[in-house]
Amino acid sequence: MVLQFAVPALIGFAFVMIAAYAGSLRALEVYFDPDQDSIFLSDDSDPPSTR
Q: For 25, phi and psi rounded to 5 degrees?
């Protein structure tokens, strides 16, 4: 009886934790790699150019 609720909850929890782990690894990869650009981690102090 308890397993019918615990197993799907455990699978969902594991999926969310794996996705969060993969996302944090990707964010750290962008942060520590100077060749990759990230809109959130730019160190450019100039205002954006308008056309």
A: -65, -40
Token pair recorded at residue 36: 């990759």
Tokens of 43: 């160190």
At a CB cut-off of 8 Å and minimum separation 6, what does 30 contact? 36, 38, 41
Closest alpha carbon to 30 in 20, 21, 40: 40
Q: Contact at 8 Å (CB) between 18 and 7?
A: no
What global pTM score does this model have?
Answer: 0.56
Tens digit of each residue's pLDDT (9 = 90 or more) over 19-48: 999 988 887 776 666 666 555 555 556 666
Q: Which amino acid is at 48?
A: P
